[in-house]
Structures are given as C-alpha cells and as structure tokens.
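Tip: read the tokens left to right.
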C-alpha cells in the first residue's frame, strides 16, 4: 500500500513539473515575441555608409559622401531641404554612384510648418543618372533618367484623380517623360498611395526596396512611428540600371513647409541570380534602360475647363455682375415702356 502511495505521489510530482516547464516555455515564447515585435525591422543585408546619413549629420563621418545644393541646410539633427519660406529649393546627393543591384533604403523624415491649412509643395527621393541639378520637379530636374518617389503635400488639381493629399507616388523615367505638376504626376506615375505624413508629432518612416534580380519595387511607410508598416506600392516589371546616384530634393512655391530628412540607411541585399528557365544573366547592369511595365501611358496635358487664375476669376465675376445689370436694365426699360403705354390708353 505504501509503495502504491509513493508511486502516485511521484506521478503527481512529475505532472506538476511538466506543467511548470510548459508554463515557463510559454512565457519565454510570449516574451520573445513581444521583444521581436518591438524591434525595428532591419533588412537581411548590410548597411553601406557611403549611401547612408546618420546622426550627428553635420559633424558626422557619413557627410563626406554627400553634397548639399541650393537652399539645403545641415544640422546634427537633420538635413533641411527647404525652410518654411516661399520659393525655396534644396537638395542632397551622394558623391558616388551606386552599383548595388538589390538594395533597400530606410529613411526617416518630417514635413511640418507654421500653416495648418495651406502648405506645400513637397520633396522627392531620387535614384537618378544625373545629380545636383536643381529644377522644377520638387527641386530637381525634369526629364530625368531613373526612379523618383514624390512626397507631394499639395493637390494642384482635383478633377481627374480622386486620391487625397499628402500623396506618395513613384515614377520611372528614361529621360523622355515630363512630370506634369498641374496633374500631380498622375499622367506618368507607376503607382502611389495617400499617406498623411505631414504635420505629425513624430517622424515618418519609409522603406524603399528594389530587387533588380526580381524587377520588383516595393514601398512601405510607418506614419504613427509604432513599427506597424503599411504597403504603399508593390510593382513587378521595374527595370533600373546600376551606377546611378541617390538624392533628395524639396521645394516650396507660394506655399511653404520645412522638409527635413532625419536619417537614411542604405542596405545592400543578397542578389538572387536569374533562374535557368530562360532568363539570361546580363553582363553589365549599368546598360539597362529604366522601364516600368505597369506605368501610366503619358497623356497630353489639357487645361481644365474651369482652370482660371485669381485675376481671371475676378474678371469673370465682374463680367457676370455687368451682364446681370444689363439684363435688369433691359427688363426695367421694357417694363417702363409698357407702363407708359398703359397710361396713355387710360386717356383715350
């Protein structure tokens, strides 16, 4: 009887120990998941300093690989492409071309200003053949060759497209396409998304990944700074050459904002070689012509029927009042003539 009791106690003790072990393992798994969820997402590659911007910026080692232009100003905390002032444009470009085929860029930025209702124009990320050429497209040149990602804060037209602003859009250009500001680039865009990154209390995170081996471009963003990434675009059939420069540019017009780049981390990813199912390896990837299979076909610019300047609107308003006065005058004259005729009939 005693032996049976001891055996029963041993079984109970082992069962208790097993339950305790399971509980400990469960707690460790949950804790590990929470720690993993709290960690920033880093790509499976290694960071290239010459294409990155890290703090302190103005006094840091990475600044030697970048060159500012225009109205850009540097501090240890950010690269300010434009101040919150009218008619400003500035840029920041790498001094060395990038020969990495598969890459990912994590950037942090902040767009803010004194005006809560009217602001503009925005800034752009560039992977382009030519560098440090100031121009009309968010502070850089039109008819560029390469990839641009536009962070547009002001809607120039509200007729043809239905998306809200701020708006992120991508364009792949071989030098032949024009960026139409009056259409917010919709005539030549590859894809885009609405993202309310302007005027937030914290910085915005954006991850741009290009897999040349897969001809795939993806863009994700985290506006709330809570490590919850949202997809902006995911496009196949995108061909970009190696040997282009990386840059940022921003501009203001009648409306203005501060456009601040806080950090840039460039990661070289492991290249996936072409399969043996028909795709042939290219010896020189710098010879590729920029192309995107799913991009919008370029359309001719046509002015909106109701697209008028402020002076034209005032003139139209005055003309309307004048026409109304003429109509009222004619109507009054006809009424007066009829009244006079009725008065004469009373005397006969």
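Filled-in amino acids:
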């Amino acid at each position: 009887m005693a032996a049976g009791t001891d055996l029963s106690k041993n079984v109970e003790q082992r069962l208790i120990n097993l339950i305790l072990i399971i509980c400990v393992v469960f707690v460790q798994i949950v804790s590990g998941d929470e720690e993993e969820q709290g960690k920033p997402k880093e790509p499976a590659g290694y960071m290239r300093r010459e294409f990155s911007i890290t703090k302190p910026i103005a006094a840091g080692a990475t600044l030697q690989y970048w060159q500012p232009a225009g109205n850009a100003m540097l501090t240890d905390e950010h690269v300010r492409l434009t101040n919150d002032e009218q008619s400003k444009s500035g840029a920041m470009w790498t001094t060395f071309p990038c020969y990495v085929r598969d890459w990912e860029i994590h950037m942090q930025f902040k767009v803010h200003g004194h005006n809560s209702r009217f602001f503009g124009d925005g800034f752009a990320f560039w992977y382009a053949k030519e560098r440090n050429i100031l121009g009309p497209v968010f502070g850089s040149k039109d008819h560029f060759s390469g990839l641009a990602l536009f962070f547009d804060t002001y809607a120039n037209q509200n007729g043809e497209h239905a998306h809200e602003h701020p708006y992120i859009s991508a364009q792949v250009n071989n030098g032949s396409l024009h960026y139409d500001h009056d259409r917010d680039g919709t005539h030549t865009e590859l894809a885009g998304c609405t993202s309310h990154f302007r005027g937030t209390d914290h910085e915005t995170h954006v991850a741009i990944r290009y897999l040349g081996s897969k001809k795939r471009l993806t863009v994700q963003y985290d506006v709330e700074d809570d490590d919850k990434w949202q997809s902006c675009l995911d496009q196949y059939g995108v061909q970009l050459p190696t040997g282009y420069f990386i840059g940022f540019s921003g501009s203001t017009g009648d409306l203005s904002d501060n456009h601040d780049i806080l950090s840039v981390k460039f990661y070289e990813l492991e290249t996936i070689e072409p399969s043996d199912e028909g795709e042939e390896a290219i010896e020189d990837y710098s010879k590729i012509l920029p192309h995107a299979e799913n991009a919008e076909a370029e359309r001719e610019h046509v002015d909106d029927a109701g697209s008028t300047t402020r002076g034209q609107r005032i003139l139209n308003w005055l003309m309307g009042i004048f026409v109304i006065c003429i109509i009222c005058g004619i109507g009054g004259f006809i009424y007066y003539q009829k009244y006079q005729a009725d008065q004469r009939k009373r005397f006969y």
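The first helix runs from residue 2 to 38. The mean pLDDT is 82.
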